[in-house]
Specification:
Layout (H helix, E strand, L loop, with lengths): L3 E5 L3 H13 L3 E5 L2 H10 L4 E4 L8 H10 L8 E5 L4 H10 L3 E4 L4 H12 L2
Parallel strand pairs: 1-2, 1-3, 3-4, 4-5
Length: 122
């Protein structure tokens, strides 16, 4: 069974790049474009990994991350934050909230793949 990845992102070019990377290696990807949709998607079916932007409509990524990590049913799902927010305070905040990794945009496909394979190896 293919690994399932939830991409929470509202930038079309990032969606396209991540989808291309994951499709090439056969992972199933679900894409949602706001924080509330992300929480709803996780409640429908737990993904193997979440790629989470911080700057989202409706519910921001900080709140999504906090909600997921405070719930014992979803706390163990790895979350990689993909964001344009490069400030040390933001990085520290998401790590304190329980993120598993943090990547700043823009990033190269190979950089993303190097991080993803740590969490999606068979």
């Amino acid at each position: 069974m293919a690994k399932r990845v939830l991409l929470v992102e509202d930038e079309k070019n990032v969606i396209l790049g991540v989808r291309t990377c994951l499709d090439a290696v056969g992972y199933d990807i679900e894409i949602v474009e706001d924080g509330q949709e992300a929480l709803d998607a996780v409640n429908r079916e737990y993904p193997d990994l979440i790629l989470l932007d911080l700057l989202l409509p409706k519910v921001d990524g900080f709140e999504v991350l906090k909600t997921l990590k405070e719930n014992e049913d979803t706390a163990s799902i790895p979350v990689i934050v993909l964001t344009a927010k490069a400030e040390d305070e933001d990085r520290q905040r998401v790590m304190d909230l329980g993120a598993d990794n943090y990547m700043t945009k823009p990033f190269k496909p190979q950089e993303l793949w190097d991080v993803l394979k740590q969490y999606l190896s068979e």
